[in-house]
């Protein structure tokens, strides 16, 4: 009995992290997902190394939602519903951070 109680106490914290989040937090997190569905994102860095040689880096992010042609508004709504269990309190176009 005591061992089962100890195992339950160890298992509960990770499971609690999987629960729903407040709708405002879900909206904040899901705006980024909607932005990624709108278009690919990238970053390019160029510079000169210590030996005088040019150096560079390229980072490109392409979401599966973009590749599948999903509507960013629908991606946002589904994401908020999945994370919070509620529908968004306001549409994607009214969310801070939306670049559309």
Summarize the structure.
The protein has helices spanning 2-16, 23-38, 64-67, 72-84, and strands at 41-48, 54-61. With 100 residues, the chain is an alpha+beta fold. The chain has a two-stranded antiparallel sheet.
Count of alpha and pi helical runs = 4
How many beta-strand segments? 2
Distance N to C terminus: 56 Å
Mind summarizing the main beta sheet?
2 strands, antiparallel
- Largest beta sheet: what is the strand line-up? 1-2
By secondary-structure content and strand pairing, the structural class works out as: alpha+beta
List unreliable stretches of 5+ residues. none
Number of domains: 1
What is the element string, with H for helices and E for strands? HHEEHH
Average pLDDT level: 86
Task: Describe the global form.
Answer: elongated
Secondary structure: helix percent:
40-55%
Describe the structure.
The chain has helices at residues 2-16, 23-38, 64-67, 72-84, and strands at residues 41-48, 54-61. It has one domain (20-94). With 100 residues, it is α+β, with helices and mostly antiparallel strands. The chain is elongated and about 55 Å long.
């Amino acid at each position: 009995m005591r061992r089962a109680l100890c195992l339950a106490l160890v298992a509960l914290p990770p499971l609690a992290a999987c629960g729903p989040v407040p709708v405002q937090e879900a909206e904040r997190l899901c705006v980024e997902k909607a932005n990624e569905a709108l278009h690919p994102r990238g970053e390019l860095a160029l510079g000169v190394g210590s030996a005088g040689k040019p150096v560079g880096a390229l980072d490109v992010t392409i979401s599966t939602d973009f590749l599948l042609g999903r509507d960013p508004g629908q991606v946002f709504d589904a994401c908020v519903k999945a994370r919070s269990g509620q529908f968004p309190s306001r549409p994607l176009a009214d969310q801070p951070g939306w670049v559309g």
